[in-house]
Amino acid sequence: MTQAEIKLCSLLLQEHFGEIVEKIGTYLIRTGTQPLRIIVSDTGLLLDQVKKALCVLIQHNLVTYQLQKRGFVEYEAQCKRVLRILRYPRYIYTAKTLYNDTGELIVEELLLNGKMTMSAVVRKVADRLTETMEDGKTMDYADVSNTFVRLADTHFVQRCPQVPETPEPPEAPPPPAPTLVINEKDMYVVPRLNLVGKGKRRRSCDEEEDGERKAKKQKQDGESSEVPGTLQQRRPRLDGAVNQSGGRAEAGPRALLEFVGKSGDSGGGMYTVNLHKALASLATATLESIVEERFGSRCARIFRLLLRKKHLEQKQVEDFAMIPAKEAKDMLYKMLSENFVSLQVSA
């Protein structure tokens, strides 16, 4: 890898996962495959910190491991997968275009968590969709499950490798690391779930309890002997997601050509990078992600609509976004109060 790519990987890891994970990931990118003992020695971190950082990277498919014949495990960074984080907004846009809000949230949860069981994804997405619906309406687990099946059928998501079901002798010691395998024909097979129910709304008391738990945890972290702020796995700021393997929604050369121009034909022509357009696109994606995380997917839909159309009346917002009048009015007021949108009074 070039030094610029290594630096970019380092920045992405730090932004999404924090300093400890970034240090371990960058070390593996620079040095190649390494065993745990060498990683601890060279980075100067505590053994427990290195183990937790490797767990985070493995969970997100950014590091793989292999059991060597001599009995130790070696870890290897997957640089291309780290760089693929830059494509997440385009993945999300594709998923949303094809499978609406439900597909968008399914793939977003998978990217935020790396790996999840289907039942956990269905419940989480149903709850998030219910939060954005009008009072009295809820999202059925079955509807979310159906969208999940469609995502698997089109290879947006895939099954994770598992430990083979081979009985081990009771006296045999466990291996240093499990060997994960998967049959290619089972990669996109969805398990049959008997999930019956609907999404649930968060109650105000639940939010208060969550706040108390977070405050208590922060206090405990501050009193611990570990370096503060190093073992926190940060929530990636995404606008959606697809499977970690890339899947069919990977952005092709067209995404790069948006920011690269050609001038002249002499000697094959000269290429220039439109930094202004690239930075503007990055800023736009960041703003959309913030709105999504703070107000929900429907507010993000309105925000994207206003970015594209520049100016819209409230009735036009309701029609174009296909959101009920009362709900659209509430969402616009929320974003207006936080200065994400502005109100222009016509003469």
Describe the fold and architecture.
- This protein is mainly α and 347 residues long.
- The protein folds into three domains: 3-77, Arc Repressor Mutant, subunit A, CATH 1.10.10.10; 84-167 and 186-222 and 235-251, Arc Repressor Mutant, subunit A (Orthogonal Bundle), CATH 1.10.10.10; 252-342, Winged helix-like DNA-binding domain superfamily/Winged helix DNA-binding domain (Arc Repressor Mutant, subunit A, Orthogonal Bundle).
- 54% of the residues lie in helices and 6% in strands.
- It contains 14 helices and five strands.
- It has helices spanning 3-17, 19-31, 36-43, 47-59, 79-83, 88-113, 118-132, 141-153, 204-223, 253-257, 275-295, 297-309, 314-321, 325-337, and strands at 34-35, 63-67, 73-77, 260-263, 270-273.
- The strands form two sheets. The protein has a three-stranded antiparallel beta sheet. Strands 4-5 form a two-stranded antiparallel sheet.
- Strand 4 (260-263) and strand 5 (270-273) form a beta hairpin.
- Helix 1 packs antiparallel against helix 2 and helix 6 (88-113) packs across helix 7 (118-132).
- Residues 287-344 form the DNA-directed RNA polymerase III subunit RPC3 winged-helix domain.
- This is DNA-directed RNA polymerase III subunit RPC3.
- Residues 164-178 have a biased composition (Pro residues).
Q: Which class best fits the helix and strand makeup?
A: mainly alpha
Mean pLDDT: 78
N-C termini distance: 58 Å
Biggest pleated-sheet summary: 3 strands, antiparallel
Number of helices: 14
Which CATH architecture of the largest domain? Orthogonal Bundle
Q: CATH homologous superfamily of the largest domain?
A: Winged helix-like DNA-binding domain superfamily/Winged helix DNA-binding domain
The CATH topology of the largest domain turns out to be Arc Repressor Mutant, subunit A
Domain RNA polymerase III subunit RPC82-related helix-turn-helix: 7-65
Domain DNA-directed RNA polymerase III subunit RPC3 winged-helix: 287-344
Protein name: DNA-directed RNA polymerase III subunit RPC3
Subcellular location: Nucleus
